[in-house]
Amino acid sequence: MNIEEFFELSAGKWFSHRTSHHLAFKQSEDGKSDLVIESLAADHPEVIKLCELYEIPASAASCGARVTWNGTMEWDEEKHTGSTVLATVPDTDNPSEGRLLREMGYAEKAPVAGRYKMGDDGALTLTTEYETMWSEERLWFASPNLRMRVSVLKRFGGFSMASFTSEIRMGGSPAAAKAEEAANSASS
User: Which run of H or of E encompasses 142?
Assistant: First the structure.
């Protein structure tokens, strides 16, 4: 699977359940979100605008996505809502790796560029360095309608949070149906 196929397969509406372990406090908390992921073509105006923000030629982008979320965390009553645009810029010598541009970061609410790597196993690894922290996230599909995610967040010289997330597709998508059909015919 390449990065474009991963983004295409990710498109749709998802229910996300995350358990986060705050290592310094020796506590965990659960969070639930509804996610909507829309795949964007490399020439989509929002992808072009994001490339311009990072002073990267728009022609260097291979794909993009708009991610919108609405969720809650166990420790607070506050709603966590937002949206961001992502764009991938593959390395010219190795397109399975490259830069992931974000309109807004996850750990810090500011534009941030990280690195992505598509593994031979179809898993996507994202590494992002923020001003005060570093994160690594690994995402993979257990099936076309079940996506898993693990992440670690490191700040102040040590790991501060680890989390596991399962995301269940709410209704099918054309890409998921195609992937599931391919998986079923391969197992026959």
Answer: strand 133-143
Secondary structure letter of residue 108 according to DSSP: S
CA distance 155 to 153: 7
Q: Which two tokens stand for residue 8?
A: 């295409």
Q: Report residues of the chain scoring pLDDT below 70.
A: 75-78, 105-110, 156, 159, 172-188
pTM reported for the whole predicted model: 0.85
Within 10 Å of residue 102's Cβ, how many Cβ atoms?
20
Q: What does the pLDDT read at residue 166?
A: 98
DSSP 1: -
CA 3, CA 89: separation in Å to the nearest integer? 10
What single letter denotes the amino acid at residue 15? F
pLDDT at 25: 77
Contact indicator for 161, 43 with CB cutoff of 8 Å: no
Distance CA 127, CA 171 (A): 30
Q: What is the largest CA-CA distance in the chain?
A: 51
DSSP 80-139: EEEEEEEEEEE-SS-TTEEEEEESS-SSSSS-EEEEEEE-TTS-EEEEEE-SSEEEEEEE
Provide the 8-state DSSP code for 92: S
